[in-house]
Amino acid sequence: MRVLSRPVPLAALLLAGALVAWIITVQRMLGMDAGPGTDLGGVGWYVGIWVTMMAAMMLPSAAPMVLLFSRVSGERARKGQAGLVPTWVFVAGYLAVWTLYGLLAYGIFRAVVAGGTDYLAWDRSGRYVAGGALAAAGLYELTPLKDVCLRHCRSPLHFLLHGWRMGWAGAIRMGAEHGGYCVGCCWGLMLALFALGIMSLFWMAVVAAVIFAEKLAPQGERLTRVFAVSLVALGIWVAAAPSSVPGLVQPNSHGADLARMRMMHTQPGSALMRGEKPAMKMP
User: Fold this and answer.
1) Less Cβ crowding at N or C end of the chain, within 10 Å?
2) 82 or 154: whose pLDDT is higher?
3) How does pLDDT run across 238-259, given as a tens digit for each residue?
4) Phi-psi domain of 31 (left: phi exceeds 0; alpha: psi -120 through 50; beta: other)
């Protein structure tokens, strides 16, 4: 079975989809980076931008798995072993898991806001919380769970050949299972993105590049140690001297105030429009 053939049209479609997602994300998020603790707005707006972000950030690094699924599915259908299942069904299952992760993060954010956020003001403990989250993300890079999930993402052929599930339901489940491994591999990096500013296009690009390198670079598994040290160092830097961190918008800055004003016109469910105080905003 020639499962390693590269269906060029599908690869081009995946990359085009990722490019379109990046364009939409830039259009939706440009100028909205209010730094750590940026308000997430209403759940509908948040889910829409989150799914678009995940498509932009994850589709390039997930492309090898998607291409393998398409090839194996096509070979099985050609041999009469199963009906052909569209590849988008697998991708939908994959993105569904990332959507659930995003909703979990949203729920945690809302719970924190409901409990009061004065202690998270940037001039009090906000910068230390952000720095601690970055350090935690770095330490996770060194855990056995990260290693297991990253090995799966880098070498998915065994999963496809020995964990194949039939039909559309099977494809959705396989996509969800692969998405689960991907979340296990990257949730710490996404935590770092929340800590640096979920609306930051700069940090989004940095995290996407790290994910791509870990999953697809020839020695990507060894890069986790480099990224671990970098994240811990960045966490200490943010906690100690946030104003000197390139690309970091401080929540109590004029730039953050402008970003929050822009969000008032695009996020009908935002905390500002409800008259609430955003997390990590200096009183």
Assistant:
1) C
2) 154
3) 999 998 999 898 888 877 778 7
4) left
- Single pTM value for the model: 0.84
**What 3-state DSSP class applies to 32?**
coil
Asked if 90 contacts 10 with a C-beta cutoff of 8 angstroms, the reply is: no
Please return the burial class of 170, using the count of CB atoms within 10 Å of its CB with bins 0-12, 13-18 and 19+.
Answer: middle
Those residues whose C-beta lies under 8 Å from the C-beta of residue 111, and which sit 6 or more positions away, are none
Which residue has 């599908």 as its token pair? 10
Q: Is the dihedral of CA 24, 26, 32, 33 positive or negative?
A: positive
**Contact, 267 vs 273, CB < 8 A?**
yes
In the chain, which ranges are continuous DSSP H helix? 8-29, 43-78, 87-114, 127-140, 144-154, 157-162, 167-196, 201-216, 220-240, 254-264
**3-class state of residue 124 by DSSP:** helix
The answer to whether 224 touches 148, Cβ cutoff 8 Å, is: no
Return all residues near 62 (Cβ < 8 A) that are at least 6 apart. Answer: 91, 94, 178, 182
Residues in the chain: 283
Which tokens belong to 178?
Answer: 């692969």
CA distance 125 to 35: 15
Whole-angstrom distance, CA of residue 147 vs CA of residue 211 = 13
